[in-house]
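Could someone model L263DTV3 with this protein?
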Amino acid sequence: MIMKTLLSKGDAKVNTFIDSMRASSPTRPENQDQTPTWIFYHPSALKMFDEIVYNSRGKQIVTFLDYDGTLSPIVSDPDKAFMTEKMRATLKDIAMHFPTAIVSGRSVDKVYNFVQLKELYYAGSHGMDIRGPTKSRSHKKMNEGVLFQAASQFLPMMNEVYKILVEKTKSVKGAMVETNKFCLSVHFRCVDEKNWAALAEKVRLVLNEYPKLRITQGRKVLEIKPSIKWDKGKALEFVLESLGYNNSNNVFPIYIGDDRTDEDAFKVLSSRSLGIGILVSQIPKETNASYTLQDPSEVGPIIFLNQARLVRMMITRSERCPIPYLGPMTYYYINKRIFLKTKCNIFIGLRQRTRQRLFI
Ligand SMILES: O=P(O)(O)OC[C@H]1O[C@H](O[C@H]2O[C@H](CO)[C@@H](O)[C@H](O)[C@H]2O)[C@H](O)[C@@H](O)[C@@H]1O
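Reply:
Sure, complex below.
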């Protein structure tokens, strides 16, 4: 009887994982009718660019970016989730203007290998391993190396579980176990859907022996983490605090992410009425983010907010423009630059020559 209860509990758990995993990475909306309402409550960050620029006025923008599905498109092979050169150049540029952090489920070393920018903060293993920039825009020596490791005592256990999971799942075609130092990922993307339940059950049985670890699900992946009260939301707060923005009204954090784990950061922002959360998703999902973007190709333009802010400042200060508030502007993103078409029909970009022609 006890055995039966345990088994049925286990089955229910596995089914819940499978259902959530399917829901977190669908290819098209299940209910197309929900889409307009969802878009109404979570409008495109690009369409609401002017409002975001306006709300961030006078505040220090700090950008937080998830990696997979946000900076790089989702691909079948996790080792080939490369970011474009254009995205790298964009990140390098924005890191010159404001503090920028990558917050990822990957280990710090892995995500650094993909991004390769010394100017950024990196919060790997779902925020459990945080490193500071090793190069600043003024080329001063920064908080080099590890800033915080929330789960260092779990490292031997994670290594042990990694080996067991590799062994136990090797019979499932397409299954792959990835180590992210303080977290592990069991990938389902290349496994036939009819074998998902069997694979999830294998993972559950291994984890039954490790009560100090927990399982969460992402986009066709089960993630195994230490059961500690630390997540991407805590990592966001930690980075803000180390930048000196604890309880500050002068900061405007922008967090962009696509996954369930990013919801912890969106929740922190919405509960503290701080900055904004932007969810990257083409389909309606339950989210604490205020805005949305369709896919990684839309992430580049939005992180140029600071430039847009500068342009706004320039035009509102300009004597040539007759009205102090320019009302809705249309933003264009061309060759890594923000251009604005204002109400008085001026087309403005940040190029020096254009600026001089218009204002000086
Ligand atoms: O927090 P993130 O940076 O989004 O990391 C979450 C997981 O991302 C990676 O898996 C996802 O992307 C892969 C490559 O596109 C894809 O094959 C996989 O199906 C996705 O779940 C990464 O490999 C995992 O370790 C991270 O936990």
